[in-house]
Amino acid sequence: MILYFSGTGNSAYTAKRIGREIQDEALDLFDKIRNHDHSALSSKRLWVVAAPTYAWRIPRVVSDWLMKTELEGARDIYFVLTCGGGIGNAGAYLKRLSEAKGLRYRGCAEVRMPENYIALYDAPGREEALALIDKAEAPISAIARRIGEGAVLPGPSATFKDKIQSGLVNDVFYPVVVHASKFRVTGACISCGKCEAVCPLSNIRMENGRPRWGKRCTHCMACICRCPKEAIEYGKHSEGQPRYVCPKTVEAPVYKNNEAAQ
């Protein structure tokens, strides 16, 4: 079973592509994380977790959910992280997480996808994004092939810089940067409530037709990027910048009982 978390679609696309190639179910964790649903899951084949990279590690909302949820059946677990630049030393932390859950860590692979973290970086336009995704197709297929064969995902080698980024920088990044105080809504808002609906932490509430952010933000960028009117800004950086939602979709087959169709 493939478990994925995705704010703007990169990890969803990657997870479904892998699911289609290895003929396995891809399960969106959005509702489970939003509803604090930690009921046990079962997989007969293996586990694959696909997620974005936040400050050179798996998002804390995903690691926290994994630690609180019983994964039954299969004992092998793979991780696939989408990123704009690199995943640093994320694999070392994922190995520890796997061992803490009694699972056999089978490696972590990175997939370079279009940048979506418009709180700090510029997202590409549609054509550039499509070109970047096309470039990612071969690596995704190679990762899926290795997973399907039961081979270990080697992952990138971690440099000293990677270790600092995934360690010290990640520790500082969350308390200093990951908060919702810089989000604001403009007059273009049509009170549709889309931002409230796409927040995985229920951190947005509509009040008098306008969104208000709470204190549980994870910086997934779903609210600002999925707003149909681009009526949400993040400080000054997002002004005039393109929003990003993965421009490609894939429908993965659904396999009941986690078994491939015969």
Automatic annotation (TrEMBL):
Coiled-coil boundaries: none
InterPro entries: 4Fe4S_Fe-S-bd (IPR017896), 4Fe4S_Fe_S_CS (IPR017900), EFR1-like (IPR047964), Flavoprotein-like_sf (IPR029039)
Residue span(s) of domain 4Fe-4S ferredoxin-type: 181-209, 215-237
GO molecular function: iron-sulfur cluster binding; metal ion binding
Keyword tags: Iron, Iron-sulfur, Metal-binding
Stored Pfam families: Fer4_9
Protein name per Swiss-Prot or TrEMBL: Flavodoxin
Taxonomic path: Bacteria, Bacillati, Bacillota, Clostridia, Eubacteriales
